[in-house]
Every structure is written in structure tokens, then in C-alpha cells.
Design a protein that fits this description.
single chain, about 30% strand, elongated
Length: about 100
């Protein structure tokens, strides 16, 4: 299982542990990934995803999964999230 957020594409970053004597050793900063179930109001369906906690806050701020996916760029989304985004767009198109 990869350590990448399905909504933001956030993955591990590399940096240093810095000691008191300023000795630097390599370390990895892992994203805070959480298994969640998000509800799409347009599709009236629930989707389980592995999402960063920071992305969850953004989903809440924007008003849900549908609004977040509408605003998100396609190149950072996972294939699962892209499929959901296209289904939501198709459903909105049919409603018009």
C-alpha cells in the first residue's frame, strides 16, 4: 500500500534530523494518512479512501467531496478519485 493521499497526491518528503551539535541525519516525513468513508451527495454513494488529515479539513471547508473534486486538478488525483469526479460531472450534466 503506497503512502500517498488519494485526493492531494501528498507523499513522503525527505529532510534532516538536526541534533543539538548540528549533526544532520536523513529522515522521512510521512503524511498523516487516514482511512475514511466520504459521501458524494450528487451520486448518493459512499467511497472509502486513504486521505491525508490535512485534505479532510479542506474537504470539510469546501463543503464536501463533490465540491472538493470539482475544484481539484486532475494530475494530483488518484485514478479512483478521477473516476468519481467524472461520474459527478456526468451526473450534473444529465441533470441540466
Amino acid at each position: 500500500m503506497s503512502r500517498v493521499c488519494e485526493l492531494t497526491g501528498t507523499g513522503p518528503m525527505v529532510g534532516h534530523n538536526v541534533s543539538h551539535s548540528n549533526i544532520k541525519t536523513k529522515r522521512r516525513f510521512m503524511p498523516n494518512l487516514v482511512n475514511v468513508t466520504l459521501h458524494s451527495e450528487a451520486l448518493d454513494q459512499k467511497f472509502s479512501m486513504r486521505v491525508a488529515a490535512k485534505a479532510l479539513r479542506t474537504v470539510d471547508k469546501l463543503g464536501g467531496l463533490d465540491a472538493y473534486l470539482a475544484k481539484a486538478k486532475d494530475d494530483v488525483l488518484s485514478s479512483k478519485a478521477l473516476k468519481i469526479k467524472k461520474n459527478i460531472a456526468k451526473k450534473a450534466e444529465d441533470a441540466e
